[in-house]
Amino acid sequence: MIQAVAELNTENQIFYSVLVFSWAVYMWEAHLAKRQRKTYRNTTLVPEELGMIMDSETFEKSRLYQLDKSTFGFWSGLYSEAEGTLILLLGGIPFLWNVSGNLTGRFGLGSEYEITQSLSFLFLATLFSAITGLPWSIYNTFIIEEKHGFNQQTLGFFFKDAVKKFAVTQCILLPVTSLLLYIIKIGGDYFFIYAWLFTLIVSLVLVTIYADYIAPLFDKFTPLPEGELKTNIEEMARSISFPLTKVYVVEGSKRSSHSNAYFYGFFKNKRIVLFDTLLEDHSPLNKAAGNENIETHTAAGDSNEIETAETKQRPKNKRQGCSNQEVLAVLGHELGHWKLGHTVKNIVISQVNSFFCFFLFAVLMDRKELFSAFGFYDTQPTLIGLMIIFQFIFSPYNEVLSFSLTVLSRRFEFQADAFAKELGKATDLYSALIKLNKDNLGFPVADWLYSMWHYSHPPLLERLRALKDKRD
Question: Residues near 198 by Cβ (< 8 Å), separated by ≥ 6?
Answer without folding.
Answer: 179, 180, 183
